Amino acid sequence: MKKMVGQIVSPGTGALFRLAEGGQMEMRAQLSQQDLALMHVGMPTSVTPVGAQSSIAGTVWQVAPVIDPQSRLGDVRIAIPYTPAVKPGGFAEVRITAGTTTAPMLPQSAGVSPRNCLGEIDRCVNQYGFVGVNLNPDPSGGHWQDPPLGDRYWYPLYEKLVEYDIPAMIHVSTSCNPCFHTTGAHYLNADTTAFMQCLTSELFKDFPTLRFVIPHGGGAVPYHWGRFRGLAQMMEKPLLKDHLLHNIFFDTCVYHQPGIDLLTRVIPADNILFASEMIGAVRGLDPETGHYYDDTRRYIEAAQIDPGERYKIYEANARRVYPRLDAALKAKGR
To answer: Model pTM?
Structure first.
C-alpha cells in the first residue's frame, strides 16, 4: 500500500512554492503615490530588520506600475542578500536614497578673503551643475576670527551668488575649540549667530534676492523668536517678517516632535525646507519612540499643518529657493 504525501496538482493550481536563486531575498515596501514617483530601479537602500542593530544594503529592483485604488499605495521591491537577521515574513525599516546634490563649502580656509572662492563657485556651477553653496561663516572652527556676515568683507561672495541666482546654506565645519562640541554646540551656536548677524545688518537691502538656508531648524531662533523680535524693535529694525523672512529659510533637521511642532508654529511654512540626514549628528533609535532620531519625515507627517503647507515644506519651497534645482527637475519632466 502506497501513502501519498503532499498536495495533488491539478490544472489552475497556483504556485506551490518559490525558490530564491542564490539565497536572494527581497523586501516589499509600500509607498505613497507621491513617493513612488521618485523611485526607479537601481536606487540604493538601507534595510534594518526589526530588532536588529545593523542595516543591510539593498537595491530597488522593481517599482510597481500601478497604484492600489483602495490604499493609494504602490509596491517597491528591494533585493537584499541573505543574512540570518532577515526572517521571511518579518518586518523591517527601509531608507531609500531618492537623490542627492552637492555644494562647495566656502570659504575653505580661515583668514582668506572670500574673493578667493569666486573661481571655485564658477567651476562648480558651470562644470558640475551645482545648485547652491555651503557658506561657512567661521572657517576658524569655533574661534570666530572673520567679520560677521553683514560685513562688506563678504560682499564679493554675495555678488557671485546673486549672479548665478543660487542660495547659500550657512553651515560651519568641525569645531577646533574644546569649549564647543561640534554637533551639540558649535553647529547650533553658528545657526543662531548667523541669524543675529543678519538681523543687525542691512544685508538684504543691498542684496534683496540673496537667499540663506539656516540648518537645524535655525538653532535657537524659533525657541527665542520673541527675543529676536524684541531686539529688532529695540534696534528700530523692521518687523522680522519684512526684515529677514524674504531671504532666510530654515530646514527641518530637528530630532524630536516637539521641536518640529515649535518650528512649524513659529516660522511660516513658506520659510521651512524639508531636510533629513543619512549620517547626522544623532544616530540610532530613540528609545521613547522606537524610531530613528533623524527620521524627520515622521515629524513633518505628524505636525499639525495642512496639506498645502506640508507640500511647501517637502517640495515647493526647495524649488523656489533653489531655482537651478527646479530647472533641472523640470528638464527631466519632474
So the answer is: 0.71
